[in-house]
Amino acid sequence: MASIYLDERSVSREEVLARAARGARLLHEAGVREGDAVALLLRNDFAFFEAMQATAALGAYAVPINWHGKPDEVLYVIGDAQPKVLIAHADLLATVRQELPADLAVFVVPTPPELLERFGLPLAAGRPAPGERAWQAAADACAPWDGPAVKLRSSMIYTSGTTGRPKGVQREPATAEQVAANAALLRQVWGVEPGMRALIAGPMYHASPNSYARQVLPAAERIVLQSRFDAEDTLATIARHGITHAVMVPTMFVRILKLPEAVRRKYDVSSLRWVVHTGAPCPREVKQALMDWWGPVVYETYGGTEVGTATLSTPQDWLAHPGSVGRPVPGARIAIYGDDGVPVADGVPGEIFVKVDAHPDFTYLHDDDKRRAAERDGLISVGDVGYLQDGLLYICDRRSDMVISAGVNIYPAEVEAALAQCPGVQDCAVFGIPDDEFGEVLAAAIELLPHSDATEAELRGYLAEKLAKYKIPRKFDFYERLPREESGKIFKRKLRAPYWEAAGRRI
Questions:
Q1: Same structural domain for residues 259 and 323?
Q2: What is the pTM of this model?
């Protein structure tokens, strides 16, 4: 029997689907109709699957909310998406309960004790407040949903908001042809197959883990959720459950590889067959070291919340063309445009525009102008800079992160990739800060490994062996902990904003 695991708990897939069918009727009784929104303020938990499936059965949009956000950020998404229902873990609900719209129906999921312990919260924080309706009990009291067939809608994911308020990416309902094409595409990209054992290491409010979870639910023999990423626990989980498939981000690879060799050798990871990474460029040395250890099982994709999955690089592709993120998937078109709006030649960096026919078109909720501005010749930009070479796509950096210093383009991602390999460095972010002479110069924010005493001079010396002089940051700041999501993405806006505000300028 197929099962889903979280820490020491497990449920069968049949239990999840049965509660989802009852939950669909519960949502319908609460006023949810086709095209409406249902907000999910949930950590990775069984209820996340139940809520997504229940929402999909009604043809509504599930709106997963980044629970790492501050209360005003959570409330912004709720106010923008205007959901008919909110389903939330009890401890997360407590932070926004008093500010929720009066007409918003709320269902509470008790926070499991192991999650409370992991996040340092008291047991009382996991219980619903008096008068609040528990999701499980309310759903179980309903008959299974047996309403008419509806058009399939994906989750409405909110962009990360690193350059301003996040926007909801609202897709049109998928046609039958798009449903079939998308399923075939994701099977190819993620290796989805019957009997797989899948690890979901990232939070399901992100696009890739969310879509991955939807795809593996009907196919996997075992799905294992992680409530929070920990490098050694991830290896232990792979060994304990015989994980065959996983979706991860490069930061996770870096942290796993920085474990002491004696720790890494404790765990048998030979079951792994298909590990996909996405979300950010992976340093070449990191990927090579991982494949030397795990074997040729590491796949890479490029895409975005707006455009879906546009490329795939197999292990064999990458070993033959290190640094590439692969070739376009079937039905994908990719073009590179210069600042003048004209396509550039092979090997010349520019803004990446893509279109994947398997993915329905979208708009940014309440902001059609922004959607139109992102389009060129029917293709969409998600703000990345890169180039095509012999049919392969290479990524330089985010366009918003690119730094122009004395007229020279510098891509912080390249510097971050080098810094991430420096002994003693756990996390880092590189970004531009104002400079009277050069316009902008690079600054580096560094989080060291526990017990590391690496100095600025040592970091500079290490970088000098790997990078041109103009790419070495002028300023280094050391942080006890960088403002980073569990997914690995650092909020650069929070790091660089003080420098620009001090100069009387806004970014």
A1: yes
A2: 0.86
